[in-house]
From TrEMBL:
Signal peptide (residue range): none
Comp. bias intervals (Low complexity): 109-132
Domain Moybdenum cofactor oxidoreductase dimerisation: 7-100
Lineage summary: Archaea, Methanobacteriati, Methanobacteriota, Stenosarchaea group, Halobacteria
Protein name: Moybdenum cofactor oxidoreductase dimerisation domain-containing protein
Amino acid sequence: MYDQVEKSLVGYPGEGQTVTPSPSGTIEVIGVAWAGDDAVDTVEVSTDGGDTWDEAEFFGPVGGTTGWRQFRYVWDSPAPGEHTIASRATDERGYTQPATVSAPDQQLRGSRTTGSRGTRAATATTPTSPTR
């Protein structure tokens, strides 16, 4: 029996994008997560390349107990400069999306493989001074 490894990805901001915080000083990070036959329990977002993680919130319709989940994270007062943004999902059984790829051609968990797909990070830049 095989089970798809839990996955998530950040859709906004995108790779190489320059993003300006809102008037309230925040940037909304948005993405999707899924976990094969299991429900996604939590998603965390890192804005510093994986050194620290904060829990995101789910929004939008739920595509069944094993469906895709949309998530958002409100990034408060980001410092100017380049930031590496990543997400990681944890399923209802406690499996957490790994940070690195151990076997790129294997993305199933089961009796013959422990291959996994790591997080996909995006690099985004916040400007030195807000544009108006």
